[in-house]
Amino acid sequence: MRTINTITELKEWVRAQKKEGRSIGLIPTMGFLHEGHMSLVEKAKAENDVAVMSIFVNPAQFGPNEDFDRYPRDLERDQQLAASAGTDIIFAPSVEEMYPKESSISFSAGELAEKMCGATRFGHFDGVLKVVTKLFHLTEADRAYFGQKDAQQLAIIESLVSNFNFPIEIRRGETVREEDGLAKSSRNVYLSETERSEAPHLHKALQAGKQAALTGEDPKAAVSSYLQAHTSGKIDYIEFLSYPALASAVEGEAILALAVQFEKARLIDNLIFNPKGN
């Protein structure tokens, strides 16, 4: 496995792969890898000839009061994990390499970003679109892999690719969880011992909400009641929407999603299911 730090070297590697007719799978990450990322590598390796993982903490998707500076970073650890999973190339550029100058062109994620995480993280998904657009072009990947834990991000990226005819296929990876149900996340390291014991209740709250939806009751009320009874975190949002359209009128597949703010960690989780039981 190689680690590449510059765009020039990455493009040389991509040209060599394309010359040999190899398909490329891209796993975009911000590093501090966990089993969720590894499952995406496994999926990419099964469906492509080579897999490239980007490790880049993207400043464009962080707000002024968010955790960009303290976001966990450990490239040596990430390299070992990525290599053990079969990654062929890590692309780990600096901020200056990715954004050498201020761009005069900006992105707008539109209506899909006006709810859930986007309701309070203004400009977050605009920054996500900025970096994935660059990564899609630089890697010329045939497929890109994203986890369903970040379901709103996934829906927005799928919309970008569809609306603007990007020559890439977006592949979904299921949320990977700890044994107690907590969704794997790089930010879980921020949790105190007490908060870590409470965090699995986020998934249990969603399960209670799903059951309510399946029986014709209010899923958001069920989730809220459960969270207030079992966690000390502040509820940021609870949403029950169609998926991936994120519309209020739920027909077919739906998403039940939440965000809870603990002292140093804001955790998100969701379930995607058909409320008709199909």
Automatic annotation (TrEMBL):
Its EC number is 6.3.2.1. Pathway: Cofactor biosynthesis; (R)-pantothenate biosynthesis; (R)-pantothenate from (R)-pantoate and beta-alanine: step 1/1. GO terms for biological process: pantothenate biosynthetic process. It holds the Pfam family Pantoate_ligase. GO terms for cellular component: cytosol. Keywords: ATP-binding, Cytoplasm, Ligase, Nucleotide-binding, Pantothenate biosynthesis. Its main location: cytoplasm. It catalyses: (R)-pantoate + beta-alanine + ATP = (R)-pantothenate + AMP + diphosphate + H(+). The active site is at H37 (proton donor). One of its GO terms (molecular function) is pantoate-beta-alanine ligase activity. It comes from the Bacteria. (R)-pantoate binds at Q61, Q153. It is found in: Cytoplasm. Beta-alanine binds at Q61. It is an enzyme of class 6 (ligase). SUPFAM superfamilies: Nucleotidylyl transferase. ATP binds at residues 30-37, 147-150, 176, 184-187. Belongs to the pantothenate synthetase family. PANTHER family: CYTIDYLATE KINASE/PANTOATE-BETA-ALANINE LIGASE (PTHR21299), PANTOATE--BETA-ALANINE LIGASE (PTHR21299:SF1). Catalyzes the condensation of pantoate with beta-alanine in an ATP-dependent reaction via a pantoyl-adenylate intermediate. The reaction proceeds by a bi uni uni bi ping pong mechanism. Homodimer. This is Pantothenate synthetase.
